[in-house]
Design goal:
The protein is built from two helices and 15 strands. By secondary structure, the chain is an alpha+beta fold. The N terminus is likely disordered.
Length: 170
């Protein structure tokens, strides 16, 4: 009898934990979230795919509260997500902002010894890391970018962000 009781308790625990996991995994969609449609953007720079760029859509309608964004892959392709978690973009007119930043030199792991720390601190003082922007400023700001898109349904669109630059971000 004790074996049946332990088996039943274990079975109930497993079922309950599965239900908790499944209910926790599904993100509840906000009730005011508008219709979202799949949007794929291809970003190039000087005609070549721009990998590692961040793409943001800024609504031209000032009362719009939902935004869409994504990152480009090695082919310059970006799938948009609304508020970072809902696949797709709301319908509407948007300014397209594109940026690609990088910290050079790459941050190094924390030193493990006093000797490594001394070298680390010396290098940090003589060659501190800097953040660089690789897209012209005009494409990085909603008020400046000439890139616009009107999303009326599922779509694919390409944009070129001009010449490659390497500018230190203060």
């Amino acid at each position: 009898m004790m074996k049946n009781f332990n088996f039943n308790v274990a079975l109930i625990a497993i079922v309950c934990s599965e239900l908790l996991i499944l209910s926790g995994c599904s993100k509840s969609r906000p009730s005011d979230l508008p219709e979202l449609v799949p949007v794929t953007l291809k970003i190039t720079q000087e005609g070549k795919p721009l990998a590692g760029a961040t793409v943001n859509l800024s609504a031209t309608d000032p009362i719009s509260v939902y935004t869409a964004a994504g990152s480009t892959d090695e082919n310059g392709v970006c799938l948009l997500y609304t508020h970072g978690q809902y696949k797709g973009s709301p319908l509407g007119k948007f300014k397209v902002r594109v940026s690609r930043t990088e910290i050079i030199p790459k941050p190094t792991p924390r030193p493990k010894s006093a000797a490594e720390n001394e070298v680390f601190m010396k290098n940090a003082k003589t060659n501190p890391p800097k953040t660089y922007q690789f897209v012209e400023e005009v494409y990085t700001k909603a008020e400046l970018t000439p890139l616009e898109i009107e999303i009326t349904g599922a779509m694919e669109k390409s944009f070129d962000v001009g010449k490659a630059v390497k500018v230190v971000i203060p």
